## 1
Amino acid sequence: MLKDVAFGQYYPVESFVHKMDPRAKILYLIAYIVLIFIVKNFYGFAVCLALLALTVVFARVPIVKVLKSIRAILFIIIVTFLINLFLHREEQDVVYFSWWIFTVTRGSVTFATFMALRLITLVLGSSILTLTTTPVALTDGLESLLSPLKLVKFPVHELALIMSIALRFIPTLMEETERIISAQKARGADFESGNIFSRVKALIPILIPLIISAFRRADELGDAMEARCYTGSRVRTKYKKLKFSVNDVIALFFVAAAFAGVILLNVYAGAVI
């Protein structure tokens, strides 16, 4: 179900990760993404998955809720895997299957698996950030990290606010889509039968009211902010001051250890792609 998508939703619970500074979590997520893309063998991916599993344990977030974030990009993962599986070419490779322009080799299987793992670990890591950080904390963290850009008159606060609102609207729009689909099904609409073109055509009655609803919600939010005399350009005070804590230092140790492990595995275990 669309309402079960985990990305963009906050899971309220007291945990080690929830108490971390949002700036540290954003920086560690960036470091984790870099770590994913410098991996050259499956041993390195094992280190990335171990770090991810450790984070889930310390965050006290149900593993099922984290894995639900993959649903949103499951189609993209499958298409990416198949494209790389059939179209990736390497010289002097073992051929498993060949027909017309499609060829499956040992190298293409490895490369396709690597691409799928990178997408999966990327989404899982990003979902943990949103599950353990409130939209307000994310806004404050992004604004603090981008504050040096204020020297060149860049609208840092406005950018952080836009990103936070967009993130917050993801679960809201998912719930709205779920309600529209249920209403259309009650009127006899069929979204599951027919070919792919019929299914795409059946989505039009969903997209139109969804777009109208999104604009209406945005208009209501703008009116609410204006009624409260919100002005993002002025110097604003903070109710909660961001401070790095011992938790952030401990997390830095694990991230640094993962980086060291992946680099050593790249050097001594070699690359498989």
## 2
Amino acid sequence: MNAHILVAEDEPKIAGLLTDYLAAAGMQTTVIDDGAAVADAIDTLAPDLVVLDVMLPHKDGMTICRELRQHSDLPVVMLTARVEEIDRLLGLELGADDYICKPFSPREVVARIKAILRRTGNGAAGDAQAPRIDIDEPRMRVTVEGQRVELTRVEFKLLQTLLRHPGRVYRRDELLDLIYDDYREVSDRTIDSHVKNLRRKLETALPERDLIHAVYGVGYKIEVD
């Protein structure tokens, strides 16, 4: 993967960490630490994706993303240091492709970037195809790439719900309301256990793909392309 990633981040440790992990994944990176320089860097470097910190000096990430979307569909991953900022970012509908809250796992950031590049076709991301997932609702059966995946009733409903709107972020409480139709009292964190088990089972059929992504402090989404 020869993708060129522009990292707009003014914290040197975070920028260095992302650079190291992206390089290990075969991607080229350019780091800038000034929000006012992002637009010129995009015009000059023509990157395949931008990792954009919300709190940049001289021009904040939300303003940059909003201005960028007026003329470009360049993929953008937003970084924020505050969990509560995620709700605000989602509410503003800035057009970012993903939102990640610090502190984060660098491996997860790389996985999300790869998923976005596959979806958009940027950066010679390879010939990965959207996985074939067949759901037989009457018999509650799921096959992934022709391989049967045994799921519990709750896991089946969770997968079915996420697949209705790929890319949409579902809040934990929203998922609980959708998968438990008997309105039982369960903790929001219960959904984390179900997602963990569902991920593990899907990995048996798709060992190289991570379909379900956590949006820190908010909930989950599924990316199938």
## 3
Amino acid sequence: MADLIQRLVQELARLPGIGEKTATRLAMHIIRAPRQQIRDLAQSLVDATEKVGLCSVCTTLTETDPCRLCSDPRRDAQTICVVSQPSDVLAIERGGHFRGRYHVLHGVLSPLEGIGPDDLRIAELLRRLGPAATGGVEVTEVIIATAPIVEGEATAMYLARLVKPLGVKVSRIATGLPVGGDLEYTDQATIARALAGRSLL
């Protein structure tokens, strides 16, 4: 295999969930694709990495700051749904059942991987729970929507211990989500049931 093709395969294989076979298949497709399509792909990669940053309010990925959801006056500012990744926001929004605001942790607690509270966006969440931080609107409920896996449950319990003393109701999404599953791959009906059936911690 040519050196340039091998390099392309190696770079593609570095992406999460992409093994060498898939990377080789993608590389062959890219090489045979129309040049303009590849230029568009390359430009979109550059644009995304240069123009997308974190929302200063909810810390999700966005082109504008604050993000579209934080800027929407129709969203319920009293309810914050805490998720582990930006992709979880997209998954919940696809269902169209939740009308509150979000907060993205960018991970979950995982001592085995060396991920502790300081590695997550927990301090930013706590700052949002004061009336002054939310434009005079007091947050009344925090819904914790981390995945129902060991790390997600540990993160939920940790957050509950921090938030409850602040006088804010803390709830957990119901177990309509499959144990060991991720929001990103869950269907809309299951997400809707999980949000509707959330329980207090």
## 4
Amino acid sequence: MQASYTHCTVLLNEAVEALHVQPDGHYIDATFGRGGHARLILARLGPGGRLTVFDKDPQAVAVAEALAATDARVSVRHQGFSAMAALPSGCADGILMDLGVSSPQLDDPSRGFSFRHDGPLDMRMDPTRGISVAEWLADADMAQMAEVIREYGEERFAQSIAKAIDRRRQERGPIRTTAELAEVVAGAVKTREPGKDPATRTFQALRIFINAELEELQQALSASLRVLRAQGWLVVISFHSLEDRICKQFMAQHSKAVYDRRVPFAEPQPMALEAVSRHMPPEAEVAANPRARSAVMRMARRTSSARGARA
């Protein structure tokens, strides 16, 4: 029997409030997870409202399909959220992206996301597709490993870690479990911030890389401009600086009027987004759920220049 893992939704009420849910609107929960945000959106939708949910994780999809079986307003897609690009133009009144890994994924040793629990070194959001971290580490050269750990984990000891992994492969064969990788990293990282495990940045880097998380985020953000109808809201919750930087830059870029320097007297192209703002979890939420401490929620509204009638 499969174990049950709990998930505490971060910024639950704040995120749904930021969507400004209209009873007959169509909303997209781009990262369903265990459905905390989705259920609250549904509670605010009327009988004519619709909710489309995306998720790569088969376990999350099973939860979403069970919800859809009891609520005809829900449509489920077993895909990464960049697949929203295939939706009709101007079809959504709001899009919510809750990025990163969920508590059930971290807490289930069989998924291989966490250095705190020994398990197979997998880390795929969808374990039915692609290669695992263990498979990638078995073949990657030192330069590739160092680049991934440095770029996606912002790890200053990336070169030392890559050398340690390579040495471990030569001496004892491929690294197959989370405990083995955490041990190798701990031996290569000589200093670390107080209270932070030496393996934190490396595990983050490998997870982001193996799931192409940043590339998918960039694709999904671009798609959101076409999918959102005028005055629709984009709400993104991120948990580390790389994600947040992409969101911040995207929203800043599209909240400015664009001038064509080749035609100095032409009217500027109107900005695509407006009302950009940021929200952090309150102290009480962080105290109750430590995983909320690094969350940043950014919000932007599609301008009236957006096209598309209700789909």
